[in-house]
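FAQ: What does a multi-protein file look like?

Like this. Sequence, then tokens, then the next protein.
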Amino acid sequence: MVELVFSWPGIASYGVRAIPSKDFTAVMGVVLTSGLFFVVTNLLIDLLIGLIDARLRQGAA
């Protein structure tokens, strides 16, 4: 959405252009990069919530 609003070239527009041209390696790269980004982001958020919220710490009574 940001790429569309501000006309910034990015990975999403690259992936969208790769689909009609049947560039499967580019599509796989975009999907892999996006998936890895979401997994790492969710992991970091889970770790930060564990540090911030005392109720979620192990061993807390």
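And here is the next protein:
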Amino acid sequence: MLKPNKRYGELKDTYLFNTIYRKTKEYSDANPGKKVFRMGVGDVSLPLCGEVIKALHKAVDDQADAATFHGYMPEVGDAALRRAIERYYRDMGAEVKENEIFISSGACDDLGDILELFERDNTVMVLEPAYPEYVDTNILSGRKIVYLNSGEENGFLPRPDRKLTADIIYICSPNNPTGAAYDRKGLKEWVDFANEIGAVILFDAAYEIFIEEADVPHSIYELDGADRCAIEICSFSKTAGFTGTRLGYTVVPKNLSRDGMNLNEMWSRNRETRTNGISYILQKGALAIFTPEGQKQIHENIRVYKENASYFMEALDTANIWYTGGKNSPYIWMKCPDGMSGWEFFDYLLREIQVVGIPGDGFGECGKGYFRFSTFGDPEETKEAADRLCKLLKK
């Protein structure tokens, strides 16, 4: 008799962002004359840059000509794209080789798939608050999860706690949802801790392009010893607006081995089994990101999102509300006023000023009493939302 995976029953009843969508839709249906400012889900609003679009069009044309047509691509990714990413790492001061880079259909997919490298009896450490997928994918796999709490007292950047141990450690810096980012000293503590206990860090670097402080690493491989303990998972979604295009990459160092098994070789074999490669067209589009003009254009878009962040930061500074994020991140993580819960504050903002954000409750116990704003929206709408927020909080 078929046995379904009953661990699905251990997940929260509804995925966080689906709940946000439902509540927002119910309000809009009941109030058709009121514009809603959606500052919640982290989807980008600016289109793909011109260099990427040109490359995508050319790649489509290539597929119409027998001389330039491409069928299956290498499971690990196009060599030219992998070499471009290798140069990108070198420029940021990290030594990563082409054969350590694996092109993927996006960071979200690899965050789940990478767990196939590890047995289910491994223990996972999640630093809370956390992106829900870290928890959900491990619940479905049946792994034991331990939580390391964080809060205002440490700027939502917890240090290793030697009372807790784990085999797999999730770290996201700059962080989603809090926007907080580890400096070199703080991240090096985690690298040393992982090497000390033999753990593997799954380092989510989806937001590295937003970093502006020199002491905040863009890659964990800027730190000595990281190539012996860390897998870095990256995305073009926020870097270059690929949320609807779906492309990313994962770095698995050659030096990363456990119990006689080399994780780079294992992941290469996994890709041979699990994928027939990523679309030629999409990889050609991504390659344009790493041209001088492509880099110029994507950074112009990032500047727009960072200006959006400044609107919220100014509003919260004026209202004297505690927050983190914004400086090195596209997310603002604020403390709810007057002891409100995240969901109470969500309803309050929607009702009073028609602004939508994300209750911190959805990111774990440590998120209760906090609220996340995304700064990927239209600039004029973001400025209006921030102005409304400031006036409301000053009342």
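Q: Is there any per-entry metadata?
A: Some entries carry free-text notes. For the entry above: The mean pLDDT is 96.
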